[in-house]
Amino acid sequence: MTPSGSSAPADILRAYAPQAGLRATLEPFARDADLRARLAANPFLMAPMAGVSDAAYRMMARAGGAALAYSEMVSVAGLHYGGAKTWELVLPHDPEPDIAVQLFGADPAQFLEATDLICERLGPRLALIDVNMACPVPKVTRKGEGSALLDDPARAARIVAACVSRAHVPVTVKVRSARRSGEPEVAAEFARAMEQAGAAAVAVHGRTASQLYRGAADWGVIGRVADVVSVPVIGSGDVRSPEAAVRMLRETGATAVMVARGSYGNPWVFDDARRLLGGVATEAPTIDRRLSALCCHVMLLEATGAHLARARSLAGWYLRGMPNAAQWRERAMRCATVGEYLQMVEAIRLACEALS
Prior knowledge:
Strand order of the largest sheet: 1-8-7-6-5-4-3-2
Number of helices: 16
CATH architecture of the largest domain: Alpha-Beta Barrel
Number of strands: 8
Low-confidence stretches: 1-5
CATH class of the largest domain: Alpha Beta
Helix content: 40-55%
Order of helices and strands: HHEHEHHEHEHHEHEHEHEHHHHH
Oligomer: single chain
């Protein structure tokens, strides 16, 4: 899986992650206890993010202490028709020890087939299967997929039962508080139905689907779900900092927390949250560490075969708040090779040293 001429991802992590204050080796998700205990041992997870959570992003999050990292949303229809591009979203790269795969669709039979295929191909490197019942994007919901399943709990339960019947790992679901703002909240009742169908945990995003990602997330719904189910609840929504991650745990009764946009340019958020939870103060990463992390991340993109256009967004995230950040972001938009990104980082280092 490593393009010729580039270093292997494991070698990149060993060489560059320590300079960024990250882990050189990635810890597997614990397997020697029930799911609640495994989540509680390290309750900070990297959320699935379409167009973001590729292999390089997952490795950076795990290097930053995330207990588990999720794939992008994977279409069960895409797996049914054997799409190679779809499988690229599923298969972990070395040195990922394991992966959580998030599936979306509307056909229980395709979910059953997808579970069979994924379990067979990934074996012990599959940590869990998550069913997306939260995606608000119209091109998904108009097919009855994602958050549209909130309107069809019977179909959603059949999907969960189909996955559970074939999976050798926990099957979880991700939901939103309701389909549309202004309508009665359905998350708690819906979560109970998913638990009865066999779901091993429920992730709750504290917005309605119609809100998309606008407005403030309502963390209260996370607690209301936790009050009515016996399985672990994973909180999601507006976790932009380690402080917010710890606060969500303490305020909602959630067993674990998904970090999404809060991990943009901040793979340290997971270990920082663990330290805060343990009463240990944290410090923001230095400019030098942020630049080292950007180098590591860009090299991982190349090593895993991802398009380097993704590095432009990454650069914007890692450079946020630095002196002359707008100028450097503009330069990043013109970078086309790893070498050009590394040259830019060296120029930023020199410029920052001159200012100090």
